[in-house]
Write a structure and sequence with these properties.
Elements: E1 2-6, E2 11-17, E3 20-25, E4 29-30, H1 33-41, H2 49-59, E5 64-68, H3 70-80
Length: 87
């Protein structure tokens, strides 16, 4: 798992899942389809396993940090939020 920190203070996490990498924001949002359907549409549960994996990795100290500039952050966010690539 990678925590992305921008030089401006923004923090996000990249969590590798079975079908690709997902963007996790704080303890409350993930770009995976499961989170979208269960948490946002059905309101069944407020999390997905990527949010849980982030918490576990942080608790166990298994997070690598990558500091990026604004341009690199923009490219990463665009790539990770391209929902057309989500199966």
């Amino acid at each position: 798992m990678i925590r992305i920190s921008s030089t401006e203070g923004f923090k996000a996490w990249v969590v590798e899942g079975e079908r690709g990498a997902y963007l996790v924001l704080g303890d409350y949002f993930c770009t995976c389809t499961d989170f979208y359907i269960e948490a946002l549409l059905r309101r069944g549960r407020p999390y997905c396993y990527h949010l849980i994996a982030k918490e576990i990795a942080e608790a166990e100290g298994k997070v690598r940090e990558r500091v990026v500039n604004r341009g690199e952050l923009t490219r990463l966010l665009m790539k990770l939020t391209d929902f057309r690539n989500d199966p």
